[in-house]
Design goal:
The chain has about 140 residues and is of the alpha/beta class. The chain has one domain (about 10-130): Divalent-metal-dependent TIM barrel enzymes (TIM Barrel, Alpha-Beta Barrel), CATH 3.20.20.150. The chain has helices at about 20-30, 40-45, 55-65, 90-100, 115-130, and strands spanning about 10, 35-40, 65-70, 75, 80-85, 105-110.
Length: about 140
Amino acid sequence: MYPSSPRVESLENLASQWTSLPELFYELVQQSGAGVTLDIGHAHACASRDVQGRVFERYLLPNRNRILNAHLYHTETRGEGHVAPARIEDIYERVELLKEVPSCKWWVIELKKINDILYTRELLNHYCEGHVRRMPLPM
């Protein structure tokens, strides 16, 4: 049963349809007043079709105060779905930016295979323990 007043808590950027365009996603977030679930794998998948570049930054920067959580994995492909990072460098730049967003309170490793989940968790734990340098968030 739904609460007496259901509401949208957050919107997620997707790998297809109109939320795969960062500027249109921003408009939806602004018009709805919802928070953001930032999916770094979907943003990476969109980047391969984008001519303007810096897709992840274009999702993150305008919405930086509304990002509540993030879905972490490397990319999404047809047939395979969500793909784990093979190494931290696969997701490093995106995680560096995401780590500087104070409103983002938790990350979800969004993978199906237990070995991929555990390996990605190990990469992220190592990263968060400070074994990787930090860069400032671009303005």
